[in-house]
Design goal:
Blueprint: E1 7-10, H1 18-32, E2 37-40, H2 47-55, E3 59-61, H3 63-68, E4 73-76, H4 83-91, E5 95-98, H5 102-116, E6 121-124, H6 130-139, E7 144-146, E8 160-165, H7 171-183, E9 187-191, H8 196-199, H9 201-210, E10 214-218, H10 224-236, E11 240-243, E12 259-264, H11 270-282
Parallel strand pairs: 1-12, 2-3, 2-4, 4-5, 6-7, 6-8, 8-9, 10-11, 10-12
Helix pairs in contact: 5-6, 9-10
Bound molecules: iron/sulfur cluster.
Length: about 280
């Protein structure tokens, strides 16, 4: 007998975004074909999915190991890479299986054109994030990165600035950033390059969170997109909880008969949401 008898529902709009899905599918197809495959960095900011792919034979390498790697096949993940990674792969005779998301590739090209036009580039993004490292490779020297007004001194910028966004940033954060820079008297040429798969999720996600008595959000601890989406859930429904795996679900979050919504970020696979929903159903 189900003691809590929770009414569990998985968010129909959740699961991998198209860019991450394509990267994971590319890796899966290559591994099934018996290919020895190396992935530069975590394919997705989700430890459970990384472990699953490791179990299928995918070898994750960091940039130090990549520098030493020769005559192999290397997967570039959806975050994209700077031009130097392609050059290094070619120099070491490595074949690149390029799973860079087309949205990110398009953004890299736009940044490249702004650089060629001699514009001063500011990236609204997280320093050290793999996507931002790739974008900086296209932006060239002199480009700056800031995730928050506190991270940038307007005096360090020229009068006219061309601004791009890391694809997983929030619309609210972007508005804070542009307001701050404009109030400092700067002229901002803004390219709102936040991915629609991310920004478009917020209204539906908030409604989904508010429409259940308890919300369980499944995401990787290192995913900035997961944290931002979870914060939106928490604002819409204070009874929201973040888990990375089914074992983290706690029965004292619920009372009998509660309606429970299960959702996740762009880097949370459907199988993980189903595993959490199953545990909830068994409580
Ligand atoms: S969030 Fe958007 S840009 Fe980023 S990988 Fe997914 S589809 Fe591509």
């Amino acid at each position: 007998m189900n003691a809590l008898n929770l009414q569990v529902r998985i968010d129909p709009r959740s699961g991998f975004c198209p860019g991450v899905r394509k990267a994971v599918e590319k890796a899966g197809a290559a591994l099934e074909g018996g290919e020895e495959l190396y992935c530069l960095g975590d394919i997705v900011h989700n430890d459970e999915e990384v472990k699953r792919l490791e179990g299928k034979g995918l070898v994750f390498i960091d940039y130090d190991r990549f520098r030493e790697l020769k005559n192999k096949t290397v997967l570039f993940r959806a975050h994209g890479e700077p031009p130097s990674s392609y050059a290094l792969a070619a120099a070491n005779n490595n074949r690149v299986l390029d799973a860079s998301c087309p949205v990110v590739l398009n953004l890299q090209q736009k940044i490249g054109r702004a650089r060629e036009a001699g514009e001063h580039i500011l990236i609204y993004g997280k320093k050290g994030h793999p996507e931002v490292i790739g974008l900086l490779g296209h932006a060239g020297e002199g480009a700056q990165v800031a995730n928050d007004p506190a991270e940038i001194d307007p005096a360090s910028l020229p009068q006219a600035v061309t601004m791009f966004c890391q694809t997983t940033q929030t619309v609210e954060g972007l508005s804070r950033m542009t307001t701050f820079l404009e109030e400092a008297g700067l002229q901002i040429r803004l390219h709102d390059t936040i991915c629609q798969c991310v920004s478009g999720r917020y209204p539906g996600l908030k409604a989904f969170a508010a429409g259940h008595e308890v919300l369980v959000f499944v995401g990787g601890q290192t995913s900035s997109n997961a944290r931002a989406l979870f914060d939106a859930c928490k604002a819409a429904n204070p009874n929201s909880y973040f888990v990375s795996r089914p074992g983290e679900v706690q029965s004292d979050w619920f009372v009998a008969g509660h309606s429970v919504g299960v959702t996740g970020s762009a880097s949370t696979p459907l199988w993980q949401l189903k595993a959490v929903a199953e545990v909830l159903g068994e409580l």
